[in-house]
UniProtKB/TrEMBL annotation:
<keyword id="KW-0804">Transcription</keyword>
<keyword id="KW-0238">DNA-binding</keyword>
<dbReference type="InterPro" id="IPR001647">
    <property type="entry name" value="HTH_TetR"/>
</dbReference>
<keyword id="KW-0805">Transcription regulation</keyword>
<protein>
    <submittedName>
        <fullName>TetR/AcrR family transcriptional regulator</fullName>
    </submittedName>
</protein>
<dbReference type="Pfam" id="PF00440">
    <property type="entry name" value="TetR_N"/>
</dbReference>
<dbReference type="InterPro" id="IPR009057">
    <property type="entry name" value="Homeodomain-like_sf"/>
</dbReference>
<feature type="DNA-binding region" description="H-T-H motif">
    <location>
        <begin position="24"/>
        <end position="43"/>
    </location>
</feature>
<feature type="domain" description="HTH tetR-type">
    <location>
        <begin position="1"/>
        <end position="61"/>
    </location>
</feature>
<dbReference type="InterPro" id="IPR011075">
    <property type="entry name" value="TetR_C"/>
</dbReference>
<dbReference type="InterPro" id="IPR036271">
    <property type="entry name" value="Tet_transcr_reg_TetR-rel_C_sf"/>
</dbReference>
<dbReference type="Pfam" id="PF16925">
    <property type="entry name" value="TetR_C_13"/>
</dbReference>
Length: 195
């Protein structure tokens, strides 16, 4: 792994553990095991490194939501994505950044975070729209609204798990989201039979 990659990976981990405001360049260099020369050879400073680390995390988040575009019916794909194990007490790597005042105040950092959520929501919306077309969800379902609801359930699961110091709230949130989809599917089968 190159020094640049080591720095980016170290920054990504520290952002998840501590947040942007509480992470210093010295912390990153120590975690990465590289010197100041390497840091400033590759990055202009903490901000530039954070942008690259946030971008890498956003790409990981996009890759993690790929089951929404995978094989199976749209409803199966959504349920499979929801069932992916999540370490609730660690929190969402992207969602946690929205709680950092320095990130929220920085248009470039906030744009990377918002972009990650936009990409994930677009995947949800496509899968939901496909489920409506396939008759798996009611015709009255608004894909954008349901996408945001399911995202909010997951983000809330992370918050509750961290607040309780327990995985159970995250698992309960996922079970609730799965139940919501099952109930919507049952309603679609009784009120909106496919042609």
């Amino acid at each position: 792994m190159s020094a640049r990659d080591q720095l980016t990976a170290a920054m990504a981990e520290l952002l998840w553990e501590r947040g942007y405001a509480a992470t210093s360049p010295r912390d990153v260099m120590a975690r990465a095991g590289v010197g100041q020369g390497s840091m400033y050879h590759h990055f202009g400073g903490k901000h530039d490194l954070a942008v690259e680390a946030f971008s890498a995390v956003a790409e990981e988040m996009a890759a993690a939501s790929s089951p929404l575009d995978g094989d199976g019916s749209p409803l199966e794909r959504m349920k499979r994505y929801l069932a992916i194990p999540r370490a609730g007490t660690r929190g969402c790597r992207v969602g946690r950044m929205t709680q950092d005042p320095q990130v929220v105040a920085d248009p470039e950092l906030l744009a990377v975070v918002a972009g990650a959520f936009d990409a994930m929501l677009a995947r949800w919306e496509r899968a939901i729209a496909e489920a409506v077309t396939a008759g798996e969800l009611p015709a009255s379902t608004v894909p954008a609204d349901l996408a945001r609801t399911l995202s909010a359930v997951l983000q809330g699961g992370y918050v509750l798990a961290r607040a309780k110091g327990s995985q159970e709230p995250m698992d309960a949130a996922v079970r609730g989201a799965l139940s919501l989809l099952d109930a919507a599917h049952a309603a679609a089968r009784t009120s909106d039979p496919p042609d």
